[in-house]
Amino acid sequence: MSPTSVDVPLADGGWETVTLHEPRQWKDHPSPYEQRVAFAAAHVVADPRGENVPGAPAVVDWESTLAFRRELFRYGFGVAEAMDTAQRNMGLDWPAVQELVRRSAQQAQEYDARIASGAGTDHAPAAATLEEVRAAYEEQVAFVESTGSQVILMASRQLAAVAAGPDDYLAVYARLLEQVREPVILHWLGEAFDPQLRGYWGSSDVDAATATFLDLVREHADKVDGVKVSLLSAEHETGLRAALPEGVRLYTGDDFNYPELIRGDGTHHSDALLGAFAAVAPAASAALTALDEGDLDAYDAEMAPTLPLSRHVFEAPTYHYKTGIAFLSWLCGHQPGFTMVGGLQSARSAVHLGRLFALADEARLLPDPEVAAHRMRVWLDGAGLAR
What we know:
Strand 3, helix 1 (62-74) and strand 4 (78-81) form a beta-alpha-beta unit. The chain contains 14 helices and ten strands. The chain has helices at residues 62-74, 94-110, 130-146, 157-162, 166-179, 206-219, 234-243, 258-263, 276-292, 296-303, 306-313, 321-331, 350-362, 369-382; strands at residues 5-9, 15-19, 38-41, 78-81, 115-119, 150-153, 184-189, 224-230, 249-252, 271-274. With 387 residues, the protein is α/β, with parallel strands linked by helices. It has an eight-stranded parallel β-barrel with strand order 3-4-5-6-7-8-9-10, surrounded by five helices. A two-stranded antiparallel ribbon has the order 1-2.
């Protein structure tokens, strides 16, 4: 039988013929890894019958959404729930967040899998004082704790808007950390992912912001399991992780440089909480398995093909990476259609998604090439790009 091929469009008006590889049979790894803690930040699947238009309440396909999380469990990952990848502040409203965390936490407990869920202030867009921001945080933290999930303290647009300087950040976060039941993950999301978070921790100077962040972590180290940093700077991350108190993990959120950061420098390493892992889970699993076995060459070889795909998915404007995650999930057969809450399926071009298809094939991440090819052709035909 001849290999399956698809013609995908190029930006210059030409075409690239993508001849698909035979699928790779990836090994399951349902237990956690020994050398690294690894979370995958998972997306939500929209109900194709739902009125998921911009500004409307999210209508979620719960069966497919939860099935995708079981796919992550299959490869040994914990789930980072209701995070940026799940379209927080970009279509997933608070009632949907609550239902998502509730359902996902219950499923994680049934599978004896780890889950950590985002608690922020996005349900209170009108919060105009530090007290109102703190109260909004407290409401979401209490809800996440009630489900049995670990808490991820997300960066807050509302806090960024009302804080006058570093002391305001320290005051709000200190009160929250004094109240939480169990150690949390602190999330520092950079402006590439959300421009409204520019100047977080009270300064647009990264060194000054880092000093404030470290002051908070050192003061409350007993309440901080780890920090999740998404600034897309390997140099900054290596410096920060070396400065963290003993026992506080650095969960990399660097979707551009994660292989080297997770591998480590021989003295320090990063653990992982990555949206990219939702796209490359089988390959990342193979790499982390090799790391457990002490085979660094195999680790490098397994991670290497995933990086071009991840860098493409997260290219500027980075905050639209969720579209690529959902498109790849559809190509892989994990969901019935390519629709997103908030209508976000329109956020990437046909050229971008065609290149994503080619890179996913190169990484051997299309489990059924015939299905993927058919879906790619159907989508291109609907976009007016049939050849």
